[in-house]
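User: Need the bound-state model for iron/sulfur cluster:
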Amino acid sequence: MALKLLWLQGLSCNGNAHSFFNVPDMAGVLREFAFIYHPLLPCEATLEEVSGGDFSPDVLIVEGALRRDGVPRGDEEALTLITRYAKRAKWVVCAGQCAVFGGIFRLNEPDKIAGALYAGKERGGFLDAFEKKIINLPGCPVHPEWLLFTLRMLALGTAPRLDDLRRPVELYGYTVHEGCLRNEYFEWKVDARDFGAKEGCLFYEQGCRGPYTRGSCNKILWNGVNSKTRAGMPCIGCTEPDFPAERLFETETLMSIPARLPLEVPKRAYLTLTGMAKAFRIPRLTRRKFGEEEP
Ligand code: SF4
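Assistant: Bound-state model below.
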C-alpha cells in the first residue's frame, strides 16, 4: 500500500513545496505515494478537512518555521495542528531549513520562532517530544531528490542512518565541497575573481561555505544537471544551523586568513598547504580560458 503523506506548513515561503515538484517523474511519484494533503496539489482532503479531521498519515512532512501562536491553518493554529498530527504519524520529516532550524523567520523573532527540534544551533524547538520520529532535511529549499530518497526509504520500511542533527548520513555525510568541479582551483589557491566566473574557486574571495557545509549538492545535482558552485555561485551554507550568515558573498578574513577553515582542517595544516600551493603557480590554472586578464 502506498505510503500516506500529510504535508503541513508553518511559516513558509512555499519554496520546499515547489522544490518537490522538481523530482524526476512527478506524475510517477504521485502514483507512488498517497497525499492526504499538500498545499499545492489536489489531494484526498482540503486543509479544513485535515484541520477538523483525524487522518492517520505514515509520514507528516513539516515545511516552514514554527511559532507558538498567530499562524492559522484551517480551524486551528499551525502549531496545534502540526503537533496533533506529529503524534499520529509514524515519521515526521522536516523539509527545509526553516522547519529544521527556524531559518530566516527566526531572525525576526528569535524568542518566538523555532524549528521542530532546533532554534538555530541550540535545542529548543517545538516538537521535542517527537524527537525519535524526526528526520531533518535542511536546505533552502530542500533538494527534491533528498526528500524523495528519504520517503522511498521509509516506504521500504527502512529508516536512514542519521547524524547528530538527525540528518540522513547518506545525504549530509559529505561537504558541498566534495564533488565540486572547482576543487583543483581550491587546492592550488586560484580564486574566482567574479561572482559567476567559470574558473577559479569561490572560497578565497566570494564567501563559498562549501568546505564546511554538509550536503550532497555536488553529488546529487539539482535537476540532474547543476549546483550553485558549478554555476559560479558560492555555497551559502543553507543546510547548517547558522544559516543565514551575514555578508553571504564575502570571505571574512583574520590577518588575511579565512576566518572559517574547511571542516576539521587545523589552521597549521591549512597554512602549510596553501603556502606551498601559492608558491607553485600552475599556468594551466591561472591562465584564464575565457578572456580574463592576469592580475
Ligand atoms: S567553489 Fe566552494 S565548493 Fe567549490 S571547490 Fe571552491 S570552496 Fe569548494
